[in-house]
C-alpha cells in the first residue's frame, strides 16, 4: 500500500502494469486533500512519451525503483484525457477515472478534489526541487607512443700512431797502431752486421664501453575540455504576466 512516505520516491519511477509491462514514467503525483494520501500518478506514455495518462496507485507496490499497479497497459492508454484546472481535479474528472478503471467511487469523494503534488511543489509551507549537474571524471590510460632500439654496427676508421724505431749506423774509428797485427801489403777485409727496428702492427679486441636504454617517467600538465550539462531553476508565478520571473 502506497502512503505519503512514498511520494518523493515516486517521481520518475517506471510504472509497471499487472502483467509486467512498462507503461511509462511518473511525472506528477495527485494526493487526496486532507489526508495527503497518493491517489493518482500522471504518467508519460505513447510514442516519445508525449501523452499524459492517469494511473491509480492506491493499491500499487513500490520496489526496485518502479511501481507496479493492478491495471493493464491497455487500460491506461484508453483512460480519459483530463484537462485539470490548476492543481485540482474536479468531481466529474475523478468519477470518470474511477469508472474507467472499474473502481468504486468513495462516498467521501463527493464535493472533494484531489490536489497535485509534483516536482517543484511542497505539501506544506516549503517547496523544493532537486537540481542535477554532470561532472567530468578524468583519468589516464597507458598508450604506446613508439619503440627505441640499440643497434650495434661495425665501422672501419684509420688510426695514425707514431712508433719510435731504432737502426744501427756504422762509423769509422781511426787510432794509432801499436805493433804489427796484420800482413803488410796483403789484401784484407773486416765486416760487421747492422740492424734496424721495423714497426709491427697487431690488433686485439677489448671492451671499452657499455650502452643501455632506460625509461624515466616524466609528468606534465594537460588541459582536458568536455561539455557537461547542469540544471537551473526559475520561479514562475501564475498571477504575473508570462515572461516575468
Automatic annotation (TrEMBL):
Transmembrane segments: none annotated. It comes from the Bacteria. Residues 10-75 form the PRC-barrel domain. Residues 130-235 form the DUF2382 domain. It holds the Pfam family DUF2382. Residues 214-245 are annotated as: Disordered. InterPro entries: Bac_photo_RC_H_C, DUF2382, PRC-brl_dom, PRC_barrel-like_sf, Stress_Response_Assoc. PANTHER family: STRESS RESPONSE PROTEIN YSNF. This is PRC and DUF2382 domain-containing protein.
Amino acid at each position: 500500500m502506497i502512503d505519503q512516505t512514498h511520494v518523493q520516491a515516486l517521481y520518475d519511477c517506471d510504472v509497471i502494469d499487472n502483467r509486467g509491462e512498462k507503461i511509462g514514467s511518473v511525472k506528477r503525483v495527485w494526493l487526496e486533500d486532507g489526508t495527503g494520501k497518493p491517489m493518482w500518478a500522471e504518467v508519460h506514455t505513447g510514442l516519445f512519451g508525449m501523452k499524459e495518462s492517469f494511473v491509480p496507485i492506491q493499491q500499487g507496490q513500490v520496489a526496485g525503483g518502479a511501481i507496479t499497479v493492478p491495471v493493464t497497459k491497455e487500460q491506461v492508454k484508453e483512460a480519459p484525457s483530463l484537462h485539470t484546472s490548476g492543481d485540482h481535479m474536479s468531481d466529474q474528472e475523478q468519477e470518470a477515472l474511477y469508472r474507467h478503471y472499474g473502481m468504486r467511487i468513495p462516498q467521501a469523494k463527493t464535493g472533494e478534489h484531489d490536489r497535485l503534488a509534483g516536482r517543484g511543489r511542497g505539501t506544506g509551507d516549503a517547496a523544493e526541487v532537486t537540481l542535477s549537474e554532470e561532472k567530468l571524471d578524468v583519468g589516464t590510460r597507458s598508450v604506446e607512443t613508439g619503440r627505441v632500439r640499440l643497434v650495434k654496427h661495425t665501422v672501419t676508421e684509420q688510426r695514425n700512431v707514431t712508433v719510435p724505431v731504432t737502426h744501427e749506423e756504422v762509423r769509422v774509428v781511426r787510432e794509432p797502431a801499436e805493433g804489427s797485427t796484420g800482413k803488410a801489403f796483403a789484401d784484407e777485409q773486416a765486416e760487421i752486421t747492422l740492424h734496424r727496428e721495423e714497426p709491427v702492427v697487431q690488433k686485439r679486441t677489448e671492451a671499452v664501453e657499455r650502452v643501455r636504454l632506460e625509461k624515466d617517467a616524466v609528468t606534465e600538465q594537460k588541459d582536458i575540455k568536455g561539455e557537461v550539462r547542469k540544471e537551473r531553476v526559475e520561479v514562475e508565478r501564475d498571477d504575473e504576466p508570462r515572461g516575468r520571473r
